[in-house]
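Every protein is a chain of amino acids, and every chain bends into a shape of its own. The fold becomes a row of whole numbers, each drawn from a learned catalogue of backbone shapes. The protein below has been through that process, and both of its lines are reproduced in full.
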Amino acid sequence: MGFKCGIVGLPNVGKSTLFNALTQTSNAQAQNYPFCTIDPNIGEVAIPDDRLQSLATISDSKSIVPTKMSFVDIAGLVKGASKGEGLGNKFLANIREMDAIAYVIRCFEDPDIVHVNGNINPVEDSEIVETELMLSDLESIESRIPLIEKKARSGDSEARELLPIINSAHQLLSTGKPARLLKISEPEKPILKSLQLLTSKPVLYICNVSEEDAISGNKYSKSVQDIASKEDALSIIISAKIESEISQLNTEEKNEFLIALGLEQSGLEQVIQSGYKLLNLITYFTSGPEESRAWTIPKGSNAPRAAREIHTDFEKGFIRAEVISYEDYVTLRGEKKSKEAGKMRVEGKDYIVEDGNVIYFRFNV
């Protein structure tokens, strides 16, 4: 599963620099892990997880398969992008299927890099980006409502479920508020998600600061953090310039560089952790002689739902899950000794998978 993150922002905020740095950094960190650039605006990267390497060593696995995340770099948005101004609107469709959106906000001063609006104003910048996404959503919704109303009148049950939600989203967007602020019940969330509205997705604000402000941020990043806290969103501080330098280093050099700067994590690690928190995700593992592999699932998933991540047949024919905690698996050096020590649990359909579980599924189709 992993997750997909769209990166948006105004021109000259460091968005593409950050995109390039994050994807290159992941490639350097993962070393032998898979990495590819699908096209100039899409990068798929392996999610580094030290636990996976430990499992592979214990199981003497032939291959290691991490879970992945995709970044989609959207051309710089400008005022009027939703109406075709600039290049931004051309790529907005690319992030409708994203799980989350990262707003890259310029929080640094540099006379050599001209701001598209003439001055550094993170609040105004974030409002421009948000407004263009909302206008794009409004256009999408308004073109669909007549057809949904027609289907609902004819007795279509799916349309009847969708109509009140799409009308509520339309009303909220019309007042200048993003669709993610819509108050709906848990069963209604998948219906809202099916609309693929840009502003219904969780948001991560990325404050792009100078090297000097990478640890504590500055007055600009503080204003962005205030916006995020009001919206129940997340914000992180990253220096795209530092990330560009990190992307050229191997793992050992990277760690030394971060320590020298007083930084605990790279930007990629911050984005991944924030993404997992925003989307409420966890990781479980499968491990054996052939491969050790990481799987990303929603927190709260039961065993059959987790099995589905491997193959739909695993969910359909689910019999049981044989579960070992990561800590026990590592401490006891593998499945055999964990089983002998009574640390392997046999769980049924109602078992809620926990982060770090090492699982073997039994199924019959």
Notes: DSSP finds 14 helices and 13 strands in the chain.
